[in-house]
Structure formats: C-alpha cells, structure tokens
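URGENT: need a sanity check before tomorrow's submission.

F., can you look over the Metallophosphoesterase record below? I want to be sure the sequence and structure line up before it goes out.
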Amino acid sequence: MSAISPQTMAVLAGRMGEGVLRQRLAMESEQVSHHYRHVEDFLHPEHLPSAGRLIHRVLTAVGLRERGRSNARRIRVGRNPVRLGRLPPAFEGCTLLHLSDLHLDVGRHYVDALVATVRGLACDACVLTGDYRFGIQGSCAPAIAALARLVPVLPKPVFAVLGNHDGIALVEGLEDLGVRVLMNERTALERGSARLHIAGIDDAHYFRTHDIARARDGLAPDACAILLSHTPEPYRLAAAHGFDLMLSGHTHGGQICLPGGIPLLTDSRAPRRVARGPWHCDRMQGFTSVGCGCSIIDARFHCPPEVTVHVLHGA
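Structure tokens as predicted:
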C-alpha cells in the first residue's frame, strides 16, 4: 500500500468519499500481502504471478516471444466519430485523445514508442482511463517517472482516472504533472458560455470504489456529460444516470487473440460486445479502448495497441 499523509488523505476523502477511500486503502494492503478476503479477488490474472512466467515460457518455446514484444510497440492511432444528441453546438468537432492501460514502467523502449506515437497529435483535450504501472504492488515512482516523459507531449488539458493496477499515490504524482485526476468527481471544458462536462470514477473492477451518483450529482438533466471509467463494467449504471458517452479500457481487447481478433480472455464481468471499440447502451454511446500497453506480459497478437482520437458531433 502506498503511504499517504493525513492531510492528503483528508483531501481525497472529501473528493471521492471517505468510505470508498478507506476501502481502497484496505484492498491495496491485500494486494501487498496477497491475503484476499474474496476468492474472486485472488483469481484476477494480475494476482497470479505464475501466469506471466507461464505465458513467457510458452511463447519462447514456440518462437513467438520476440514477435509478441515487437507487436506491442507498434502503436496505432485510431479515429472514432461520436454523435451526441445533447452536444452543445460550440463543441461541434471537438477532439479527445484517449489513452488507456498504459502500463508505462514495462520498459524504456515501449515508452519511446508511445511518446513518438502521440507527439504532435493535435486534439482539444486528452483523457487517460487508468493502469499506469505494469505491476500491482511496489513503488509508483517508475510509473510516475515514465509519465513525466509522456505528459508534456499530450494535448492539454489532460483528465484521468485510476485503474486496478494503480496505487492511490499516483493521484498526487499525476496532479504534480498537471493532470486532473477525477476521483468520483467531475469538471468541464468551456467554450464561451457552453460546457462539456467530464466526470470520472475510481476503479470498478478490483477496488470497486466507483460512485457514479457522486460524480453526476448536481448536474442538470439536460447537460451533456462524458464519463471516464477504467473498466466498462458499470456501463448499465452509467447509462441509467444519463451520461452521453462512456470512455473506458481495462480489457486490452484480449491482448493475445486468435486470428480475427477473437479474445481468449478479457478479464471483465461486462459482456464481450462492450469489451472493445464502439458500442451503445440505451441512449449512451460507449467506447472501450484495446489499450496502448500490455499487462501480465509485454506481448500482443492479433490485437494491435492503439490510442484513439474521438471526434464529437451533434446529432
């Protein structure tokens, strides 16, 4: 568990809710000790250290280890047009650069590839949907050092949420770099008198410290609002709360897939129809990034890493 000062804890409790903060800190302690209260928490792939070693040995044995590593560094730039019925006219054509599942501390060559991919991309804002470090325990310092290389080349402003790999100490590290971390709270982009609201929730996959109602509280029913969530799992709740667009990641699109991009595993309780790319639920549009990094092992097959430019249009 990352140590935080009483002053920082008081600030975070006010932002995300005291109860969910204490829950997150307790579950971070479980990750460090590997003493999980629930079987389902123990069975997450990232909590099984032998999983990465086994995959590494299999890929090495069949001669695919280096190809998988090379695939993981070939990061694509995707473009996703989105039509939002309540988008203020002032935001017609607004562009959001979306990065998810960065897992930055996996190695210098990967960070070099990601920086080269996003450098010079002209967008109106950038959103990060969690998982900044490769492991789930230990110091956040290597991930923050890699973020210090990446953040300066991202379009500004930058908004972010935490994922299931991220210790709470990353909030301070990200915000020291000028990134606005949304912990069950919201902010807005402004153009004249028009506003495009951006809300963010804490991780709903492992920590389960998301509070969509808190993030939406006080917002007018007809306001156009985007929700950032590390995982698409709470998509039905997000739609019920009237969000217009939900941006997420976590699934990696499967990362290691069969030909045709068929995932072997998405590590998500959400249905596969929302596990990658664009989707919708009732009136809410959604997009789940396949991620620009890797988890468990730095390899990809039939699922190229990507960053996405979302282009917003009115209905």
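My own read: The radius of gyration is 18 Å. The first helix runs from residue 6 to 16. If you see anything odd, call me.
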